[in-house]
Amino acid sequence: MSSTVRTAALLFLGRAVVRTQALLGDPAARLFGTTPTRDPYPTYESVRSSGALVKSRMGLYLTASHELCDAVLRDPAYGVVPAGDLSPIDSSGYVDGRRLVNPVEESFLVRNPPDHTRLRRLVAPWFTPRGLRAQAATVERVVAEYLDEVGDRPTFDLVGDFAARVPVRVIAELLGVPGADQAAFARWGKALVNALDGVRDLRELRALHEGLREFEAFLDDLVAHRRARPGDDIVSALVAHDDLTREDLVATTELLLVAGFETTVNLIGNAALAVLAHPEVRARLLDDPACAEAVVEETLRLDPPVQYTVRMPFEATHLAGARVPRRTPVVLLLAGANRDPAVFTDPHRFDPDRPDVRAHLAFSSGIHYCLGAGLARMEAAAALRGLFGRYPNLRAAGRIRRRPSRLIRGAAHFPVTTGAPQRRPMAPATT
Ligand code: HEM
């Protein structure tokens, strides 16, 4: 059988098995086999009401318990699951005789210590409080610039015209991508992010390979350029490490683009949705721009962009009274854990004032805790302040189309009307 036919057959069979199990009531199949735009929160509730740890006939476990998710994420007996282990096909490929690096499969996000520790350490300095302070001005400038482009238009797409542009530009500047290449950089980022959910058909697989091929060629050029003329960006710092392989350099750079892109786009979108749905929150935001931080934090808890992650034990172990065989995936429903009533009072209510607002798991926990959490918080708060400062009467203007993804939750298309524009931008919050 040719590899193309085999891949198509595996994809088809995989979907058919999941659909059948979903009809039989299997919790994992219901989650992964239903329309990706459907509200997932009732499924998380039903998982939690079935027990702290729920077994699926699909050979994995699920939990929506905050305590259990946090414990597994911090437990060195569990490791990350290489993406290939969960997918029926290998989405990396050979093009022109050279193997493409799929960031999802090779970066430190999906590597265990000691490789994880070594690679994460190389880029960590950009994300410390000191590193972030250096980026605050860039973030404010980028937000203002894109809002200037929206200007006095009566309607716009909050995602396409604004939220989707800010994070990719910030990452591009961090990595040292020249301005002229930033549009292509954004296009590749989108293609790579779409693959995070797993490729669904051959067309998507081809698009992924094409995107990876172009992106790697671009990165090779950027690396050569930075070797010759180093700057104070991340790529320049990475190329200075002689012991870093080309694959690790490509995977690390791609990870920063992919991890920080759609996640932050959807945080901005989900936070704006929350403000539109809660007039009292809008009133407070207009009155006190500094409360954007709390609004962002409560959005991360109630409607996080990353809905789940997966770990597996290196050896057979016991978890919540069940024996989990070695290398069995345990799906940690972060978005479900964020509504666990054992931790959060009245968990389905949007309340930026809750005292434990930062106890959520939206950025995961343990050694893989999101490296860009501080940057994402800063970008989303600046975006909210900018948006509502300029357009205090912002309203939804039509149907919001959700991203067709189970892993990343947010709006793909978010039409809004600006109302009467107010030319006075809000002052940045000082916290
Ligand atoms: C709202 C925005 C974001 C959310 C919700 C988010 C969420 C997450 C989550 C849940 C993980 C851990 C996954 C796991 O434990 O398996 C993670 C890891 C990571 N994130 Fe983020 N992220 C966001 C923004 C960013 C940004 C802006 C960057 C950087 C530019 C970034 C870079 C990373 C990196 C490098 C990792 C891997 C950390 C490791 O494996 O040690 N993220 N993120």
From TrEMBL:
Signal peptide: none annotated. PROSITE patterns: CYTOCHROME_P450. SUPFAM superfamilies: Cytochrome P450 (SSF48264). It holds the Pfam family p450. The keyword Oxidoreductase applies. InterPro entries: Cyt_P450 (IPR001128), Cyt_P450_B (IPR002397), Cyt_P450_CS (IPR017972), Cyt_P450_sf (IPR036396). The keyword Heme applies. Keywords: Heme, Iron, Metal-binding, Monooxygenase, Oxidoreductase. One of its GO terms (molecular function) is steroid hydroxylase activity. GO terms for biological process: cholesterol catabolic process. Belongs to the cytochrome P450 family. This is Cytochrome P450. It comes from Saccharothrix australiensis. The lineage of its organism: Bacteria, Bacillati, Actinomycetota, Actinomycetes, Pseudonocardiales.
